[in-house]
Design goal:
The structure holds three protein chains of three kinds.
Chain A: H1 4-26, H2 35-53, H3 55-61, H4 64-87, H5 114-138
Chain B: H1 2-7, H2 9-23, H3 31-58, E1 64-67, E2 78-81, H4 83-110, H5 114-136, H6 140-159, H7 164-195, H8 200-210, H9 215-232, H10 242-248, H11 251-284, H12 287-308, H13 312-333, H14 336-367, H15 378-381, H16 383-397, H17 403-417, H18 421-447, H19 460-478, H20 481-497
Helix pairs in contact in B: 2-3, 2-5, 3-4, 3-5, 4-5, 4-11, 4-14, 4-19, 4-20, 5-6, 5-11, 6-7, 6-11, 7-8, 7-9, 7-10, 8-11, 9-11, 10-11, 10-13, 11-13, 11-14, 12-13, 12-18, 13-14, 13-17, 13-18, 14-16, 14-17, 14-19, 14-20, 16-18, 16-19, 17-18, 17-19
Chain C: H1 2-10, H2 12-30, H3 34-56, H4 78-109, H5 114-126
The chains are: A mainly alpha, B mainly alpha, C mainly alpha.
């Protein structure tokens, strides 16, 4: 698209959209929202960018190799966090039992393992959504 | 170290294939690495399954409950390692290793370039992990999620075949299977609304208390689950997607779909019926009679439609419809022998049908001919492929000393125990029809003159895969001891829970 | 009769879920256009979500987030909503996969009508 206004507006709101997405992901433990909703907001910011600036530009800032790596990394992160419990001699994905601090309710790092887990899942959701969009758009 | 490994074994069996599957796309370019990783995961899986079965058989403190994340039962997710789970996980490991071996040389022809082969392996590992999860989970919502994972990876495997027929088959399969999973989810929803529990044992206890006050909701839950799992397991009137999907998929995928995926749904359905609803409710609602009746109809109609097919893979696919009938018939007999028959037949059919599909795939890819009539003389040119095919066919018909016999024998014993002469007759007629649609293939392959053509047995890995599975068929028939023991205990467990 | 009507009116989300489910199943089974089939699937799944979520709802209940100022309010049951979030993720992935398949179908057949595709396959087989 060649529309100047659209391009400027997107350039202004894009960082805020991305940041809001990560906000929703990280506060998934203490407020509505979470990894899936937040991840989709993050993905939407990139999708908006590549619809306005064109698919090639979108591919340039997020090449396929990066997407594949973030996708696998999100899952691996989840698995590794689950393994912490096993190394401490308690069940898989143990939270407080594995020695994570619950924190004060309502603050960012409350809920022990949960914000870390949602971060991994959120990254995975975001990259999967972007990959889906790119693949379907290219077909 | 070994103690930690032992207590966490159930988690590893499910989680390792899944996480490895998600890591595979990162080295999609290096196909050799992927093959090596998949083979390593499968070998580990076989060792773990054998260890698990050994522990379940010879150690006293089983069934073991594993509590995910340390949240105890009504709140958290429980994994239960019992006889049923050990039996099915062992089956998965036995079948999936040769299939992976066979897939190595086959995929390039049927699936295409490297990128797509990598995706095929991703789906393969996801399917294996989710099936193992279905066998051991004790949580209803987990069952739904794993059913969805299995469904999606099956559709992916079907659509991975080159050419446009596969896309159409996969789309039809996806639509019908999603309809089925919406029904399954609805049934689980009714159970949750009635009981307030998702854990199977708690739900069962609560259901025993409340079912008389709202009988219609229980009926709704039962029928939703029945139809949902019926669609997914290709029970007779709902099997319309199966012939297309199973005959269009690449051969290794057909082997997995026919051999394992359907069995996973049946295991889940069995757990839901016998653990949650239990004997009293099933008798009250007349489920047993429905199961037996539908099983018998499926055996007859499935076999007759298999008889009418001209193409090899379609005939095998319709044969699966008939064999699913046996499994449901055993579920409806409601005695120990019947359930044992279902479990043993499930194991042997998994091995036999995957061997049949792999052998058929080897023959079709060597000759390029799909019609049975064109396969004249192939038996003499491809001795290993057709030889293993013959062993599997004889076993499926139910010859003694081969694995299919044991399952059928227990099913007959179960029907006699239930006093149901009609189903004994149907089982025997089913065997005769099975001979009628499988033996002509062997006759054409061995006793008709071969055309001048350069048909050869497949390469060494594929031969090894076929021989491994054939050895499995024979061994299961000659030395079925541990399997009969496991199945007997699982059946007794399921019937005692009521 | 009056009792039954009262029951239906009190449990109106269930009635809505039932009607939507029927619409979804009919659309899936009777339409031959692939997009309509896909929409039917989505309607069907959302009605199951409605069933679950309305089962966990309490009239006048609070959002189930720990509030230190008001220690003992009536909470809405969060479990069905959490489960349905998973259900939504599953349905999104089914939709995405189906769309990809539709693109493949359209590329090879040039139509999105399943009946037409069946006819084309039949003609190819006859030749």
């Amino acid at each position: 698209m060649k529309d100047y206004i659209l391009k400027r507006i997107v350039a202004v709101i894009l960082p805020f959209m991305c940041m809001y997405g990560f906000y929703v992901i990280l506060h998934g433990a203490s407020s509505p929202g979470g990894s899936f909703a937040g991840g989709i907001i993050v993905a939407l910011s990139f999708i908006v960018f590549s619809t306005i600036y064109g698919l090639d530009e979108g591919r340039r800032i997020l090449p396929e190799s990066v997407l594949v790596w973030t996708e696998s990394f999100g899952t691996l992160w989840y698995g590794l966090l689950g393994l912490i419990g096993i190394f401490k001699g308690v069940p898989f994905l143990a939270n407080l039992l594995a020695g994570f601090k619950p924190g004060t309710p309502g603050s960012l790092f409350s809920g022990g393992l949960i914000p870390l887990l949602t971060l991994g899942v959120g990254i995975r959701v975001a990259s999967t959504m972007v990959t889906l969009f790119f693949t379907i758009k290219e077909e | 170290m070994t103690a930690g490994l032992k207590t966490n074994l159930p988690v590893f069996i499910v989680v390792i294939p899944m996480f490895v599957a998600f890591m595979l796309p990162t080295f999609a370019r290096r196909i050799k690495w992927i093959e090596g990783t998949v083979a390593a995961v499968k070998l580990l899986g076989l060792a773990a399954a054998a260890w698990l079965a050994h522990m379940v058989l010879y150690e006293k403190d089983f069934p073991v409950k594993y509590i995910m994340g340390g949240w105890p039962a009504p709140w958290g997710i429980e994994l239960v390692i019992g006889n049923l789970a050990a039996l099915f996980i062992l089956t998965i490991a036995i079948v999936s290793l040769p299939v992976a071996l066979f897939a190595r040389d086959n995929l390039e022809k049927e699936v295409g370039p490297k990128q797509r082969i990598a995706r095929f392996y991703v789906l393969y590992l996801l399917l294996i992990g989710a099936l193992a999860g279905m066998a051991i989970t004790n949580d209803l919502f987990n069952v739904f999620v794993l059913v969805e994972v299995v469904t999606l990876s099956c559709c992916g495997l079907v659509s991975s075949r080159k050419g446009h027929g596969a896309a159409k088959a996969a789309f039809n399969y996806l639509i019908l299977a999603t309809l089925g999973s919406a029904l399954v989810l609805g049934g689980i929803g009714f159970i949750y609304i009635l009981t307030g529990h998702l854990n199977m044992e708690f739900a069962s206890a609560e259901l025993g208390r409340v079912w008389q006050s709202s009988p219609h909701t229980v009926w709704m839950a039962l029928s939703f689950l029945f139809v949902g799992f019926g669609v997914k397991a290709a029970l007779f009137p709902l099997h319309v997607w199966l012939p297309d999907a199973h005959s269009m998929a690449p051969s290794p995928a057909s082997a997995l779909l026919s051999g394992l995926a359907i069995k996973g749904y049946i295991i889940s359905f069995m757990k839901i019926l016998y653990v949650i609803f239990g004997h009293t409710l099933m008798q009250e609602y007349g489920i047993y009679r429905i199961l037996i009746l539908i099983g018998m109809v499926a055996i007859i109609i499935g076999s007759l439609s298999a008889l009418l097919q001209k193409r090899l893979k379609r005939r095998l696919a319709f044969s699966t419809v008939a064999q699913v009938g046996y499994l449901f018939l055993g579920l409806g007999l409601a005695n120990k022998e019947g359930l044992m028959g279902t479990l043993l037949y499930l194991v042997s059919h998994a091995v036999i049908k995957s061997l049949l599909f792999l052998a058929a795939g080897a023959v079709i890819s060597a000759t390029g001919k799909e019609n049975i009539r064109d396969l004249a003389g192939v038996g003499r040119k491809m001795p290993i492929a057709m030889g293993t095919f013959t062993i599997a066919s004889l076993s499926l018909i139910g010859l003694p000393l081969l694995s299919g016999f044991i399952g059928k024998w227990h099913l007959v014993l179960g029907s006699l125990g239930a006093g149901d002469i009609l189903s004994v007759t149907v089982i025997i007629i089913g065997s005769i029809l099975c001979a009628a649609y499988l033996l002509p293939i062997i006759r054409i392959a061995y006793f008709e003159p071969a055309p001048e053509a350069d048909w050869q047995d497949p390469g060494l890995p594929q031969k090894a895969a076929l021989i491994l599975l054939a050895a499995g068929v024979v061994l299961l028939g000659v030395l079925p001891g541990p399997f009969i023991e496991l199945a007997g205990r699982a059946a007794a467990e399921l019937l005692l829970i009521q | 009769m009056k009792e039954l009507l009262e029951k239906v009116v009190i449990n109106y989300p269930y009635l809505a879920a039932g009607i939507l489910f029927a619409i979804g199943v009919l659309t899936v089974l009777t339409r031959s256009n692939v997009f309509k089939k896909l929409i039917g699937i989505n309607i069907m799944e959302s009605c199951v979500f409605l069933l679950f979520v309305s089962a966990g709802n309490i009239k006048g209940g609070n959002v189930p987030i720990l509030d230190t100022a008001n220690p003992k309010p009536v909470y809405v049951n969060p479990l069905p909503s959490a489960l349905m979030l998973t259900g939504i993720v599953v349905s999104v992935s089914v939709t995405a996969f189906a769309l990809a398949l539709i693109i493949r179908l359209y590329n090879s057949y040039g139509t999105t009508d399943l009946r037409r595709i069946g006819e084309m396959d039949y003609e190819v087989k006859k030749k």
